[in-house]
Amino acid sequence: MMNTVNPQYEREDCLLRPGNTNCGGCGMSTGLTLLGRALEGETYSMVIPACCGIVTAGAYPTTSYNVPVLASTFASSPAFASGVAAVNELNQDPGAKKQRVICWAGDGGTYDIGIATLSAAAERNEDLIYFCYDNEIYGNTGGQRSSATPAAARTTTTPGGKVEGKKEIMEILAAHRIPYAATLSIAHPDDFREKIHKALAMSGFRFFLIHAPCPTGWKTEPAESIELVRLAVRSGIFPLYEVFNGTDYRINLEPDGTNPEKYFEKQKRFRGQDADLENAKLAVTARIERLRKLAGISQMNKAVSA
Predict the structure, then answer these.
(1) Spatial contact of 22 and 207, defined as CB atoms under 8 Å apart
(2) Over the stretch 241-268, which tens digit does the pLDDT of each residue have?
(3) Are 62 and 3 in contact (CB under 8 A)?
(4) Could you read off the pLDDT of 164-223 as tens digits, one per residue?
(5) Is 272 left (phi over 0), alpha (psi -120 to 50) or beta?
């Protein structure tokens, strides 16, 4: 079933094939579709650690992916990908099209278990494009909390709501002074495509963070996934911005003042007497204000240097 695809549905940009087993409303699936379209015409392979993304491939010898995929250990996708990039460079024919290497990992393999090899590859400025589809839980193993889980969210291991806030992975990557880091929203496909094209024009380590709803773990309606991430951008919960060389911050779309409560209300994971939504909303305000300051400092430095 996995590999039995009607030829009329096959397209050059079809990274994720029809007939896969992903859940309805999966933000990761939409992210893969948008990625495939943005990379149309490129030659690339993917390295995927333990996560929903590697389960997506299906059982050997069939696959739901339309490009070569290497399954890595949970903690090591950037290390695996560094090796693939090195081999590609050794085998590159003069004048041949560049072979891209892409890491596709969840928040468990990025924020937590994989952060050591992620940091090492970023520090070495490996020529990789790394995508973290952030569904804010360990979605493939039952919905446990990760360090990407926001405060007040209930998971199987934080039934009363998570006490700690979400780790600032973008700032961590920016501190490595990599050429490019950016956030992506599946509700903003034009911004998504434009940023990937920017990354393709660069070399070195490039990092993308995608807000990826998980209806199963977030206790939401699958049909509302796009609306959820749109609310996240509008309210400032998930701002769209870029960081160049670790210091130049640029906000791509300013929040429009939408109350974050609308985002929280649509998710049963934030319901319950113990969920501290007031502090969660305060954290959203503080985070966007900090980002505005960083972007303002970047603009100020540009003006001074000019």
Answers:
(1) no
(2) 999 999 999 999 999 989 998 999 999 9
(3) yes
(4) 999 999 999 999 999 999 999 999 999 999 999 999 999 999 999 999 999 999 999 999
(5) left
- Pull the structure tokens for residue 148: 């990407």
Q: Which two tokens stand for residue 218?
A: 């977030």
- Residue reference for tokens 């977030």: 218
End-to-end CA distance of the chain: 59
Q: Mapped to the 3 state alphabet, what secondary structure does the chain carry?
A: CCCCCCHHHCCCCCCECCCCCCCCCCHHHHHHHHHHHHCCCCEEEEEECCCHHHHCCCCCCCCCECCCEEECCCCCHHHHHHHHHHHHHHHCCCCCCCEEEEEEEECHHHHHCCHHHHHHHHHCCCCCEEEEEECCEEHHHCCEECCCCCCCCCCCCCCCCCCCCCCCHHHHHHCCCCCEEEEEECCCHHHHHHHHHHHHCCCCCEEEEEECCCHHHHCCCHHHHHHHHHHHHHHCCCCEEEEECCCEEEEEECCCCCCCHHHHHCCHHHCCCCCCHHHHHHHHHHHHHHHHHHHHHHHHHHHHHC
CA 215, 164, 246, 43 torsion-angle sign: negative
Q: Is the pLDDT of residue 95 over 90?
A: no
> What are the sequence ranges of the domains in the chain?
7-305
> Of 214, 115, 217, 116, which is closest to residue 169 (Cα–Cα)?
115
Indicate the residue type of 92: Q
Look at residues 31, 34, 223, 49 and name the one whose alpha carbon lies nearest to residue 135. 31
* d(C-alpha 199, C-alpha 279), whole Å: 35
CATH code 3.40.50.970 for 7-305: yes
Cβ atoms of 89 and 66 within 8 Å: the answer is: no
**Pick from 15, 18, 16: nearest CA to 6:** 18
